[in-house]
Amino acid sequence: MALIAPSLLSSDFLHLADICTMINESEADWLHLDVMDGSFVPNISFGIPIVKEICKSTKKPCDVHLMIVQPDRYIDVFHQAGANILTVHLEACTHLHRTVQHIKSLGMKAGVAINPHTPIEMLADIITAIDVVCVMSVNPGFGGQQFIPQTLKKIERLKKLILLSSSKTIIEVDGGVSLENASTILSVGADVLVVGSAIFNSSDPKKSIHKLKNLVQYV
Fold it and tell me: Which residues are catalytic?
């Protein structure tokens, strides 16, 4: 069964405690936290203090996505803040293998995210060392964007790479995921769906999570 990871970026930041309670009571599998620095992406979201409080408040694994330059400088502090999965961007890492090793040495799962323009082939030499590949299906930086259709072919190619290398890496898709396209995304090989606007802009976020879980469970 696919995993559903609500993205906090699309939520109402004035009610974070209530949102954590809702997530805890829902069928969500992970909570996705986008950390943006205004440099790697053209937006600033939230930082270590907020992540620390969220990680203390949620019962779900915290999937922390670093959309920042020089992510190596912050691996230890995000571990201390409570991250369970820590994802860095391939495009932001000079020594990606070393970065992945550092993340895993602290007991976190290591994720690598790739932007829409980055070819899957750049993951070939790291695919067996990582736990998650986060395929960006929008240009990173803002919620509420439209899913890029070419991502489906990209997921297919990534799935083939994983199978050919006998890797245990799982595929996470982040950006523009909705009730309307979730089944299609899963059918080409995705394992984890990061969902923001489709959950938090709905009248009943918990019910939307339930619908996503029921929609995808037979894929």
Answer: 34, 174
